[in-house]
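Students often ask why inverse folding is considered easier than folding. One informal answer: many sequences map to the same fold, so there is more than one right answer. In these notes we will look at a single instance of the problem. The structure comes first.
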């Protein structure tokens, strides 16, 4: 039997403890031994409180019990993201975790909607999305398992306190054999022959050797950037936001089962409802607004009472050209950063862990594994990058310098092609790997004012009266079923209320 691979994770937080939990929960001893090194004196970046449905797969794979996790992280449910004033002032649409309508005549539903629209029927495409209508009504329930039912056509994610989630996974990991070492890393020793990492040196003087080192040290990128000097690909020309103010406030207003993103003059503002508070922030481009002006804008638009002083985060959009270099894999912010506009930060951690587990090496690492891992991560980052850029590029706003810049900027060729083919006839390329299926692209295209010139000719194979009758039935059924769903706050209070849950949640549960 081969000896276990000695894995050393540098850095805790969400990235470090997800990596530890993911490896120990799927690979287990004797495949590997996992040691995580972190310092309580070094803070973590906790902007990623909104997630994608994929996190449920991760939790299920390692054996996390959903209700328990939600109670201990003050979590709520999420059916999508509402975008306010994106594309044009007055715009309001939801990017749902689900589809619009149902395919007919061999083509996507949006072709039926376009046909109806071009023949005088002023349907709102959101009326044909179950998770959107549920979101607008502040309702939630689990999707039906019977795929013939209209209320099976969606998925869900969570709003979580990322710091508490990391703490939860720490307990999960340590109970399964992960060894935690407290302390600061002050030096990295490289192998003189291979250039790989031989050991990390702690402030205490201890040297920790390993076969595979995982850099979860955040923006510091202590191993991948500092010791190995892996090149960085800068994407700020397309994603110019480089700062964020973040602040919690008390819960007020609607207890929404969705994240809200409101476009501002120099960026955008998020609102994430948890059980005990709301998370808020203003992501902005420092080239277009002074930091203090952004701070005032955020604090003046909260819907509750601030519960702390706002803190500043600094970042740059981009990624390492090679997330796996030698015997070091960068995961999380050490690997790259894409602003949290579509809640992709935790997903990128998850997919990195999943890909690493699939390609997990022996003590002697095969370069072919490294090449394949980097190829897979390149696909993930590039497709998310294009989707985020679309939000900025698909705009007619000219009311501020940022939006005028976004209108004029040159786009990646891959995104130019996606926009062109959608404008031509509503085509959206489905792909196996990478985030964001056609339903996601459709929501942003239409929501921000990009409409196709024509629909697919196969749509005309369905008789007009039959198509309209079916569309009206879908719309009515979605509305009726959604109105029968429980209130979101009441569902949370009944299913996973935390000890810190606000009176708003507890009152709903008692009603």
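Output (designed amino acids):
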């Amino acid at each position: 039997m081969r000896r276990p691979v000695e894995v050393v994770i540098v850095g805790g937080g969400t990235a470090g403890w997800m990596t530890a939990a993911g490896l120990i929960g799927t690979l287990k001893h004797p495949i590997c031994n996992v040691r995580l090194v972190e310092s309580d004196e070094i803070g973590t970046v906790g902007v990623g409180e909104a997630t994608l449905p994929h996190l449920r797969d991760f939790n299920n794979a390692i054996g996390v019990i959903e209700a328990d996790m939600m109670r201990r992280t003050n979590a709520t449910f999420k059916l999508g993201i509402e975008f306010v004033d994106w594309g044009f002032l007055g715009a309001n649409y939801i990017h749902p975790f689900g589809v619009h309508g149902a395919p007919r005549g061999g083509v996507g539903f949006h072709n039926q909607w376009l046909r109806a629209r071009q023949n005088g029927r002023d349907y709102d495409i959101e009326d044909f999305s179950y998770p959107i209508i549920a979101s607008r009504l502040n309702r939630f329930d689990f999707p039906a398992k019977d795929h013939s039912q209209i209320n099976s056509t969606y998925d869900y994610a969570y709003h979580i306190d990322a710091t508490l989630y990391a703490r939860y996974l720490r307990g999960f990991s340590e109970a399964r054999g992960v060894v935690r070492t407290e302390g600061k890393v002050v030096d990295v020793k490289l192998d003189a022959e291979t250039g790989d990492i031989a050991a990390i040196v702690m402030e205490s003087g201890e040297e920790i050797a390993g076969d595979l080192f995982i850099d979860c040290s955040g923006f510091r990128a202590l191993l991948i950037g500092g010791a190995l000097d892996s090149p960085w690909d800068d994407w700020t020309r397309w994603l110019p936001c480089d700062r964020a103010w973040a602040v919690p406030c008390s819960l007020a207003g609607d207890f929404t089962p969705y994240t809200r993103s409101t476009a501002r003059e120099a960026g955008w503002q998020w609102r994430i409802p948890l059980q005990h508070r709301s998370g808020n922030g203003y992501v902005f481009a420092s080239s277009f607004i002074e930091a203090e002006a952004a701070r005032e804008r955020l604090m003046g638009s909260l819907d509750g009472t601030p519960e702390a002083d706002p803190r500043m985060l600094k970042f740059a959009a981009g990624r390492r050209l090679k997330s796996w270099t030698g015997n070091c894999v960068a995961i999380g912010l050490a690997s790259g950063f894409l602003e949290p506009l579509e809640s992709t930060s935790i997903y990128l951690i998850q997919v990195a862990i999943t890909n690493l587990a699939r390609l997990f090496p022996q003590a002697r690492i095969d370069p072919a594994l490294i090449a394949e891992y980097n190829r897979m991560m390149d696909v993930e980052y590039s497709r998310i990058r294009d989707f985020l850029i679309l939000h900025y590029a698909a705009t007619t706003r000219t009311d501020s310098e940022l939006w005028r810049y976004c209108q004029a900027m040159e786009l990646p060729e891959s995104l130019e092609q996606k926009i062109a083919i959608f404008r031509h006839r509503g085509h959206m390329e489905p792909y196996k790997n990478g985030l964001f299926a056609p339903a996601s692209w459709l929501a942003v295209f239409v929501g921000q004012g990009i409409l196709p010139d024509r629909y697919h000719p196969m749509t005309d194979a369905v008789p007009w009266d039959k198509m309209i009758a079916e569309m009206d039935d879908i719309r009515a059924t979605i509305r009726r079923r959604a109105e029968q769903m429980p209130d979101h706050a009441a569902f949370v209070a009944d299913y996973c209320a935390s000890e810190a849950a606000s009176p708003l949640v507890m009152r709903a549960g008692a009603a």
